[in-house]
Each structure stands twice: as C-alpha cells, then as structure tokens.
Amino acid sequence: MDKEPITLNGLNKLKEELIFLKEKKRPEIVSAIAEARSHGDLKENAEYHAAKEEQSHNEGRITEINDIIARANVIDVTKLSNDGKVIFGSTVFLEDLDTGEKINYKIVGRDEADLKQKLIFYQSPIGKGLIGKNKSDLVEIGTPSGVKNFEIKDVQYI
Q1: 130, 108 contact by CB (below 8 A)
Q2: Tell me, which fold does domain 4-75 have in CATH?
Q3: The predicted structure's pLDDT at residue 82
C-alpha cells in the first residue's frame, strides 16, 4: 500500500467530508429507504431503488476516504525551510513567457487537485515539470494544449 502525499488542508477537508457522509448523509439515506419501503412493492418502487443506489455511492465514498486517510503522508510545507525549490505542497508563482500572464499554482495530491482553484496534481504534466525546479528557473512544459514556457518568479511554502 503506497503512501499518498497530501497537504494538511487536504487531509482536514477529507475528514470533514467523512464526518458529513457518516453522520448526516448516511442517516438521511437510511430514512429514505425506510420511507420508500413503507410504500409497498419494492420491485416497482423507483424511490427505493434510487435510495439504495445513493446508499451504495455514499458507502463507496466513505470507504474511499478511509483508504486515502490510511495511506496519507501529510506534508506540511510551512514546517520546512524554504530554499526556493519547488516541492510537493509549495506554491509556485509563474510568468507565462509566451503571453506575459502571471499565474500561481499550489502543488497538491490527487484528491485535492482542482484547476479552478489553482491546485495542481503533482503528477500532472505541469506538476511534474515544476517539481525540483528553483526560483528564477526557466521551464518548458509539454501540456495537452501544447508546449508552455514559464519563468518561476517565486516559490512559497505557505
């Protein structure tokens, strides 16, 4: 069982989701199943089947979160000395050399990745291209939309 790197924030979000699924969602689904059962014939009962399917999804996600937490290797970059190197959990400030656009990404684990929030999976093309590089480095990264050229303007462990 491989350890999976995760930030402290990512781990806390998973724990919150787990509590929600177990303490709020699970009882709601059990109640919906009981309600649907009371309506009689289960073969023709769409509410019952929908509730059972929702229960299956919920229990599957609970199992998945428990597995992620069990394999979690929490990396708290705020405790590391910042030597300007891009590592898991660091926030990288970039300038796109082709467009002049300034952008920043935090390098995170699989379950935290969310491009809209500038949280980038460390195994993604950009994540792989940045890890191990240093402040002021010029980086060329092959992405699905073509080759991108960046300059690393800053690296912060926040």
Answers
A1: no
A2: Helix Hairpins (1.10.287)
A3: 79
